[in-house]
Design brief:
Length: 341
Amino acid sequence: MLPSRPYVIGTVVVLILFIVGFYIQNPELIFTAKQEPQINLTQICSQKLIDKSIQLEHCERKLLLKDTGVRKAAINVITPWLAPVIWDGTFNINILNDQHKETRIGLFVFAVKKYIRFLQPFLESAERFFMVGHKVTYYVFTDKVSDVVKPKIANGRVLQLHEVTADQRWQDVSMRRMDTLQVFTKEHMPKEIDYLICADVDMVFNDHMGVEILGDLVATLHPGFFLSEPESFSYERRPISAAYIPHGQGDFYYMAALYGGKVEEIYKLSMACQKGITEDKKKNIEAVWQEESHLNKYLVYNKPTKVLSPEYLWATGLPHGEFIKKIRFLAVDKNHNEVRN
Ligand code: 4GW
Ligand code: MN
């Protein structure tokens, strides 16, 4: 026997009401297909290399670049000329230590006039963190050798003290380093060391800094500029100076408080920078950030083979968010009035 007509119509109406009611309570089931995909930056970051189906065009590029995590990933693992950028976690120190068992490393530093006060903490912290277990020669240049307090130095490490002229102007003290470097990298160092690291003295080593920083030509990202667009780098912009870098050129803003390389490379670098400094002096001008400007100029046309992240150059009190896992080399928060000459 077939069900009666009113019974069938009633059942169909109840069914329709049930289905409509279900979708009203679960609207996402209706609109899923039409919804714009939600962009979850964190998800994209971790997924981006694996999931090729996600096209970068779908993302707001500007938004991505503003997201500091992405900017770091975008610029800081490897440079466009394929030089590694050294961050915590990008190297295995045991493998590298094995490779550098016989490597001889120099650390070049100026401590002239009032800056001699920074030398002891600099050297003591270097003994704790700089190239521990390797052959190290400290090349210290000062105007008062007799005032140097020699710290206890581990076996396999040597402290050389050298007398240097104390220039009147602090800018000249700072720039004299290039002049001194071109002499020593030619005459003394080639027989004594393989690599030379040049550093400011108003710094302390605060965490591991080892052979991972060694390379033919090595420069460090300035902590104040590593997230900046090149237009805002404080390069020398006056064409009259030998340190001039035109807009549109240059990759990073490097800080002169830490750079290095093979002795021969530092010889070439210091020759070029000193030549620029001398040319400027003849014209009675001085680059905006003295030898740092000349260093940046040199590195535009002689790309570093390794770049150190700002872990290797940080300043007290500079906020670092989640970027900086290790502060390896820290600028001392100096009282400028006390150290001014
Ligand atoms: C202002 O009065 C001075 S004095 C600025 C630098 C001075 C200075 C620098 C000095 O009297 N003696 C000296 O040995 N230096 C060396 O140049 C020292 O190695 C120092 O780290 C380096 C660069 O100077 P700085 O550290 O003051 O530069 P910023 O401000 O870039 O850290
Ligand atoms: Mn300094």
